[in-house]
Amino acid sequence: MTASVAETPMAAPPSRSRAIGVALGSLLLLVLPALATDRYLETATRGLIASLFALAFNLLWRHCRLLSFGHAAYFGAGMFATIHAMRAAEAGSLDLPLPLMPLMGLLAGAVLGLVCGALATIRTGTYFAMITLAISELVHSFGPQFGSLFGGESGLSAMRMPWAGFAFGDARQVYVLVLAWALAGAAALWLFGMTPLGRTAFAVGENETRLRFLGMRTHAVKTATFCASAAASGLAGALLAVANENVDYSIFGGGASAAPVMHTFIGGAGTFLGPVLGAVLLTGFGSIVGQATRLWLLYQGIFFVLVVMLAPGGLAGLVAAGLRRSADGQAAKALRATALVLAGALLVTCAVVFAGETLSEVLSDAYSAARATTGMRFPPVERLGLAYSPLSLPLWAAAAAAFLGGVLLLRRAMRP
Amino acid sequence: MTATLELKGVVKRFGPAEIIRGVDLRVLRGERHALIGPNGAGKSTLFHLVSGHLRLSGGEIRLGGTRLDGRSPAAIARLGLARSFQITSIFGGMSVFENLRLAVLARRRRATVAWRLASAMTDAAEEAVARAEAVRLRPRLDTPAADLAYAEQRALELALTLALDPGVVLLDEPTAGMSAEEAAATVDLIRRTTEGRTLLVVEHDMDIVFRLCDRISVLVNGRVVATDAPAAIASNPDVRTAYLGDAVDA
After folding, report:
1. pLDDT tens-digit profile of A383-401?
2. Looking at chain B from residue 113 to 142, which residues have their Cβ under 8 Å from any Cβ of chain A?
3. What is the predicted ipTM?
4. Which residue among A77, A303, B235, B241 is the one 20 to 30 A from A284 at the CA level?
5. Which among A53, A55, A60 is positioned nearest to A75, based on CA atoms?
6. Under an 8 A CB cutoff, do A197 and B102 touch?
7. What stretches pass through the bilayer (chain A) (predicted)?
């Protein structure tokens, strides 16, 4: 009797296109230092860190169906542990080369994750989410208190010490270091899913009660998975500490906990690499759009809402569905759906940007000043290279029409 | 005869409502024992108490010499008592193969190994395939459990329970919702696969009970009113008024 049976495929694109995607992505990551300027390389570094963090968060969600709203605690623990270790190395009291510093963050995340995970995983669902949120708020509230641990408002700084001829002084060497650890972390998370423990963790998400009656202590399984997720989050935090050489307690805030959630659900929680797609996209978005407008967080939020409403499988889910369609010989249909998505997204973007930028201009101090100097109630707005009246009915009607039309197109495209 | 599963004065209250009101029950080693009774008699509650899903309000339950009451479902399963569920309870997003391998690994205490790949555990994989074969699910190994036909899901449920290689098997309405042919096939399957094990079955279909089981206990209003061989139960006047009579009228 043979036992050559495949693992259950999860919601994933056909394996050939996935292999091509992974190969292209890896190639891009490797040649990036030769092509990109320092600024883009720093953005890429942050994208790698955000990717690892999102993958770590999604380990818990994709397997155990546990939604953590407080992963900043483990990310931050990794950052602080690493900064402290780097400071000790700087002072000469710790002999650990810089490339191994991220292990400190991994360890800190694992230890904190073991304790907090054992507590939080007693409950599931909403209660679990609330406990994780409470834990991270608790850690955040300690921030201003313990000066020597968290460094108060200004935080703590450390220097990257040279090792084996590498000064780690430029963005290139930092990028390579972060890339190596991020790939190792991602590979470990991927392998976790293929171990018996990973398969059992997946079964917890499927049917925890049944698993108990198969004799499994599910609380231990959930705690172990939480610990692995927190350890990888701590590793991601450690990489940011190495890259920034600085950390303060604001990293424990809600924004840092929200980031992996947004990245995961925009990218697609159902596939392993979905969170990476979301993390890379939003990091790049923040870096590029953040230069152009102060409203980028608003746009990011609207984007998140639209993706969750219209494409619950995330962008990776859309891509996978498109690839499956073309594999089924429905390439024309897949192309049409893609065109609809792009057209709809373009219309919605135009409308949202117009409304956002106009309102932000009208509500600004500069506009109040312009009002006083011109004596007009609503002087023309100068934005996006145009000058127009903020009360222009045709423009607002066009924006409303574009928004509605865009949403309709998107909804149409998402229909199976 | 030695009792392998023994209930003494078992009581379960939900607030003021007493659902199980002092049940004494002896299930003998190797026998096929049915638990019958009208709707609301407390059959499923009794199963939940034995398997650790619910906590007792009073009394005690023993497996061999070991107290079961107060233990977790996982601990009870590890002691060799496995149950199936009335509403099919399987791992829908996982293949038939993975469902069974999981149960096999759980029994072998290997389901939390984190330093080897699951695919490297070929002996567990072989056993999972054999167990699929035993319930005629071999051709469906790669099918997600959620996509199986209803009778196939029930067969998988049974195979999951048996994969623990339990000394005592509790089956909660194993033929519920099946057509007559499917039910008959399932009874054969149960007979064949539970050979040599102790079986406690909740079942509504009297035909099936009489064909499958050696002894029957009748549960009415939270009490066992009779325990006997099928023929004796069928002619027991108390049972007829309390239960079988109702069933005939209905």
Report:
1. 767 788 888 888 899 999 9
2. 113-119, 121-122, 125-126, 128-130, 133, 141-142
3. 0.91
4. A77
5. A53
6. no
7. 46-61, 66-86, 98-120, 172-192, 220-243, 302-323, 335-355, 393-410
